[in-house]
């Protein structure tokens, strides 16, 4: 595995964004050109990379919240591996650009992919991705130290050492086994590790009561139009986060994800570099048609030697037949009034027990709200006339019918204008749902406490949890001209 280019970017509020360090490896670039042939895309200049990367990460263009290449609903980001669309001579797509961010720094690198790029191979099948992330993690520890945010002089001095450091850990663009650079985070208890090798992602050893915490969070996005001529869209993204307080230099832990008997297979699985082995069936799952009976459907076993800090063990996507809450939203203009009708239906497969559930109804590009005569079948309605916003708090349960409604009229005759939005004019409006459902996932994926195996001198306490939450969950007014693209444009 080799690296085509490496960048370290300073990005902190109140300071100019700049590339603090970059390195290209001409021998690796020559190999990339030979492998890619006519599809070769050259690495652009620093300024171009900086602009493209910040745009892709959503850290630039504050006056332009919607960027089509990044925010379109058909674009499915695969963090931390992003793609950069290069314009001009030699235009094309640089992929996979690996980027991690902590404190004032963004560390990024472009590994060499030595397999055909079309069709695009699954990230989990590329050794260069996990090794590239390991290199970035080692450099991150070296630059930020134990505090996670060194002073300016400390960071500058460590950046000055990078050229000589890279000669040792990444000669000619080929990362060796990445050592703990400089002065890493202080171990919990200083110990002698003997001849056992300390991995790059682990900065010490743990002493104390053994506890393993595993949290599974699924996030659902949805764009519902209420229009037969336009297809509703939704997707599910899951992450498994672990914190393992287990004694030993390299303790072994195995976490198993299980699906219900009729559950859809997990796809696009990415794992942390500390995972020691993975079944080949898991790696190829995302490249197999989900309707194929031979598709691997679990259980998904992840053996690993954990770092000390909390980390993301793996992430995945899942195809589910319906979104958890189906909605209908209709607005009608009557003189200077809006007649609104809303119906929200909780799907029968979803647990009817919320930590919270709210529906926000903003009204842009109008005068300030005047009279609001709106009734809801359940929950409480909060009216913010200054923001032209209705907040419908549905509480922690839907009624037995699993259906709630809102009806009424709103007039707009305030002394000032309400907030504006270039995308929502006239009857183009939406409802945005915010909710969290504890102890369930939409895919049915779960971590069984009894399946967690820990090979350590002390028997640990196992704590598992799972939850479903919403993000960018929009229901558009079916009588308005809703945009086709993702709700990210409004964030």
UniProtKB/TrEMBL annotation:
InterPro entries: AP2_Mu_C_sf, AP5M1, MHD
A biological process from GO: protein transport
Pfam families, per the entry: Adap_comp_sub
Domain MHD: 209-476
GO cellular component, one term: lysosomal membrane
Cellular compartment(s): Cytoplasm, Cytosol; Late endosome membrane; Lysosome membrane
Name recorded for this polypeptide: AP-5 complex subunit mu-1
Gene it is expressed from: ap5m1
């Amino acid at each position: 595995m080799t690296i085509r280019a490496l960048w370290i970017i300073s990005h902190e509020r109140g300071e100019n964004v700049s590339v603090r360090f970059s390195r290209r490896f001409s021998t690796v670039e020559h190999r990339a050109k030979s492998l890619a042939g006519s599809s070769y895309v050259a690495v652009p200049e620093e300024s171009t990379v900086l602009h493209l990367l910040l745009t892709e990460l959503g850290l630039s263009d504050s006056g332009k919240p919607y960027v089509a290449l990044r925010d379109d609903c058909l674009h499915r980001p695969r963090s931390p591996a992003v793609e950069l669309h290069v314009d001009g001579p030699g235009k094309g797509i640089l992929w996979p650009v690996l980027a991690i961010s902590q404190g004032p720094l963004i560390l990024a690198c472009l590994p060499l992919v030595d397999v055909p790029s079309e069709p695009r191979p699954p990230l989990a099948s590329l050794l260069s991705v996990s090794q590239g992330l390991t290199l970035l993690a080692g450099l991150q520890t070296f630059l930020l130290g134990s505090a996670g945010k060194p002073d300016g002089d400390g960071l500058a001095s460590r950046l000055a050492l990078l050229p000589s450091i890279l000669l040792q850990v990444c000669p000619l663009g080929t990362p060796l086994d990445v050592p703990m650079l400089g002065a890493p985070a202080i171990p919990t208890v200083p110990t002698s590790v003997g001849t056992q090798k300390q991995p790059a992602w682990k900065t010490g050893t743990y002493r104390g009561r053994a506890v393993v915490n595993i949290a599974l969070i699924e996030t659902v996005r949805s764009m519902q139009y209420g229009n037969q001529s336009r297809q509703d869209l939704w997707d599910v993204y899951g992450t498994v986060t672990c914190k393992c307080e287990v004694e030993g230099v390299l303790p072994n832990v195995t976490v198993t994800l299980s699906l219900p008997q009729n559950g859809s297979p997990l796809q696009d699985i990415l794992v942390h570099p500390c995972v020691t082995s993975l079944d080949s069936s898991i790696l190829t799952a995302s490249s197999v048609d989900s309707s194929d009976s031979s598709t691997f459907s679990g259980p998904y076993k992840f053996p690993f030697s954990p770092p000390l800090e909390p980390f993301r063990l793996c992430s995945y996507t899942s195809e589910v037949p319906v979104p958890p809450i189906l909605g209908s939203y209709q607005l009608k203009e009557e003189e200077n009034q809006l007649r609104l009708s809303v119906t929200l239906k909780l799907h029968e497969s979803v647990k009817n027990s919320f930590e919270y559930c709210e529906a926000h109804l903003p009204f842009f590009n109008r005068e300030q709200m005047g009279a609001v005569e709106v009734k809801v079948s359940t929950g409480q309605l909060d009216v913010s006339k200054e923001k032209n916003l209705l907040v419908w708090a549905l509480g922690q349960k839907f009624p037995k019918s699993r259906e709630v409604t809102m009806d009424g009229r709103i007039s707009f005759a305030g002394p000032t204008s309400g907030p504006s939005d270039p995308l929502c004019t006239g009857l183009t409006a939406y409802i945005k749902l915010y909710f969290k459902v504890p102890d369930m996932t939409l895919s049915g994926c779960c971590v069984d406490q009894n399946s967690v195996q820990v090979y350590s001198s002390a028997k640990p306490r196992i704590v598992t949890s799972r939850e479903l939450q919403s993000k960018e969950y929009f229901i558009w007014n079916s009588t308005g001209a809703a945009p086709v693209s993702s709700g990210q444009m409004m964030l």
